[in-house]
């Protein structure tokens, strides 16, 4: 019998072909329009296992092309700049991402877990894959959870690209030595970014395309978060567009589940059906 992660992986690939639309919630607990879920409600209801999601076609974990997780230097907290021989730096409103990983098998913080995070840049491009940044590896990195199960990344607020609600991808591995093999991930999921923060950030310089794209999506219609409105995946935010935002989420994972890959599978860069025009990301 296929395990739940395997079924979700297959379903995720089908969703990309179907071209479903996306959405977001609110970080104030008061904005529930356009199918949104208040951040306060999401935080209160976040008691179950984090949903397993597709890693999309641009994981960079070796499941669909390049594997940045084998590169020296990938374990880092500040992921704004590329490392190794690449020298690019992603621009945008500062964002600190704080993830707290809980091991449901022990009902305790998942100390020592390796958490791999990646997301698009201000222009909606994914390093290693999208046109113009295939030689960059910024906005990708790994941190090891501390005694409280917490990891912290310094980054920039990602864009909203066509067809998806603004989000951050992450994979959880049992330890540092496991990260070079995507099939050893014990969880693959995504963080949904709250609507109020998105609206504020996208009003700043460089995010003009995100304003248009965000106006066309809803959290309830997203092909990843739509099943439950992102209840367990909607981050909470503090801060502002000048000093930057902190996005926080507690993710509960079940280490008793057989590890499976969350990547998009074969098909080469761009995922099933090939890359969209101009190398822009598909709806994943």
What does this structure look like?
The chain has 284 residues and is α+β, with helices and mostly antiparallel strands. It has a domain of 196 residues: Protocatechuate 3,4-Dioxygenase, subunit A, CATH 2.60.130.10.
Distance between the termini: 26 Å
Using only CA atoms, what is the Rg? 17 Å
Shape, per Cα inertia axes? globular
Q: Determine the mean pLDDT.
A: 82
Can you name the CATH architecture of the domain at 4-21 and 46-192 and 233-263?
Sandwich
Helix-strand pattern:
HHEEEEEEEHHEE
Q: Please indicate the percent range of residues in DSSP E strands (runs of 2 or more).
A: 15-25%
Look at the helices and sheets and give the structural class: alpha+beta
Q: Describe the largest sheet.
A: 5 strands, mixed
Task: Provide the CATH superfamily of the domain at 4-21 and 46-192 and 233-263.
Answer: Aromatic compound dioxygenase
Helix content: 10-25%
Low-pLDDT segments, ≥5 res: 1-45, 265-280
Short synopsis of the structure:
It is built from four helices and nine strands, in the order ααβββββββααββ.
């Amino acid at each position: 019998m296929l395990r739940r992660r395997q079924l979700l992986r297959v379903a995720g690939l089908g969703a990309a072909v179907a071209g479903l639309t996306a959405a977001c919630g609110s970080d104030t607990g008061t904005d529930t329009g356009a199918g949104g879920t208040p951040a306060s409600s999401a935080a209160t209801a976040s008691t179950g296992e984090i949903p397993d999601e597709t890693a999309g076609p641009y994981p960079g974990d070796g499941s669909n092309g390049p594997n940045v997780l084998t590169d020296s230097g990938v374990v880092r907290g500040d992921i704004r700049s590329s490392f190794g021989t690449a020298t690019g730096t992603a621009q945008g409103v500062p964002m600190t991402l704080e993830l707290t990983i809980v091991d449901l098998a022990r009902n305790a913080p998942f100390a020592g877990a390796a958490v791999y995070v990646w997301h698009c840049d201000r222009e909606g491009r994914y390093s290693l894959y999208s046109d113009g940044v295939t030689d960059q590896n910024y906005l990708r990195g790994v941190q090891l959870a501390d005694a409280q199960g917490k990891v912290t990344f310094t980054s920039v607020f990602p864009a909203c690209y066509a067809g998806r609600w603004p989000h951050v991808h992450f994979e959880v591995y049992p330890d540092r030595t496991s990260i070079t093999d995507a099939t050893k991930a014990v969880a693959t999921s995504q963080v949904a970014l709250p609507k109020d923060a998105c609206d504020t950030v996208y009003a700043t310089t460089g995010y003009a395309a995100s304003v248009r794209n965000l106006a066309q999506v809803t959290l309830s219609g997203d092909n990843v978060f739509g099943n439950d409105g992102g209840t367990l995946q909607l981050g909470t935010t503090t801060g502002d567009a000048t000093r930057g935002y902190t996005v926080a989420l507690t993710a509960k994972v079940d280490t008793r589940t057989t590890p499976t890959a969350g990547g998009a599978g074969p098909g080469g860069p761009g995922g099933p059906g090939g890359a969209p025009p101009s190398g822009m990301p598909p709806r994943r």
